[in-house]
Amino acid sequence: MSSKVAVVTGSNKGIGLSIVKILCQKYDGVVYLTSRDETRGMEAVAELEKLDLHPKFHQLDTESRESIEAFRDHIKETYGGIDILINNAAIAYKGASTAPFHEQAENTLRVNFFGTYNVCQELFPLLRKHARVVHISSYAGHLSRINGQEPEASNLRKKLSSPNLTEKELSNLVNTFVDLTAADKHAESGWPNSAYVVSKVTVTALARIQQRHFDDKHPEEDIVVNAVHPGSVKTEMSSQSGDKNVDEGAQAPVWAALLPPNIEEPRGGYVWHDNSIVDWVNGPLPSNL
Questions:
Q1: In the structure, what pLDDT confidence band is assigned to residue 115 with cuts at 50, 70 and 90?
Q2: For residue 250, which of 19, 156, 191, 284 is within the disulfide window of CB 3.0 to 4.6 Å?
Q3: For residue 215, what is the enclosing H or E element?
Q4: Pairing between strand 56-59 and 127-136?
Q5: Domain contains 169
């Protein structure tokens, strides 16, 4: 029950798999590789075992509350708690996709935002003292990317960056965006014409809200939540475009996952791929995307 435990969602390939690999090399604890598809997950574990690395595997579909609860119960019964949680599971439509925008919005936000949110709801009660949580964000996750019609976009940015924004209010904003896409009124309401951007901006906003909660309600626990942009990484999701390989893309998320006890910052931060902390509200975005 005393073993330290790290969990990485959506980690059978890409950046997630590299995060698991590096944690297996650096972290003194049990590392869980999780995947929606059990066969692909076990194949990924076998790939790492060839490198003499030995992650644990458990099926985890972040779109299924039942699957999340089953994983929660397994961890609680086996280890009693979690020390590192990296929310990596996500999807992105290709730029050439012909899927209706409302469909893209509905699916992208369901997986990228609500999947992450639901995992947190179920697993946060298991976080132990000094736990570290990392939400994988993107350069697309900066607040400035909320750039639909003004002044509506400015009002949205103010809402999303408000120090009083709650998880419920954020969830309502996400649902409103999805509803607006059905009538093609999202841009005139201030939202960008990218479901992926909205998903990553709101996941980053979620990290800020969650950090405020832990600091206000449980400061003695030293639980830290950050959102991390891993860089422009060559993955299946990015159609192999980018200037970093997956191991390079895993570096900043692992750095944030291994932050030492009682660190002053980043806490609720927006962390760039070089481990620098970017002002999420005012910018500017670094040039090295």
A1: very high
A2: 19
A3: helix 195-217
A4: unpaired
A5: no
Residue 52 sits in a domain whose CATH number is 3.40.50.720
Please tell me the least confidently modeled range out of 130-139, 187-196, 232-241.
Answer: 232-241
Residue 27 is a catalytic residue: no
SS3 32: strand
Structurally, the chain folds into a number of domains equal to 1
Collect all residues with Cβ–Cβ distance below 8 Å to 106 and sequence separation of at least 6. Answer: 178, 181
Query: For 190-232, what is each residue's pLDDT tens digit?
Result: 999 999 999 999 999 999 999 999 999 999 999 999 999 999 8
Whole-model pTM?
Answer: 0.96
Residue among 32, 117, 196, 270 flagged as catalytic: 196
The domain of 63 spans 5-98+112-139+201-278
3-state class percentages of the chain: helix first, strand second, coil last, to nearest 5: 45, 15, 40
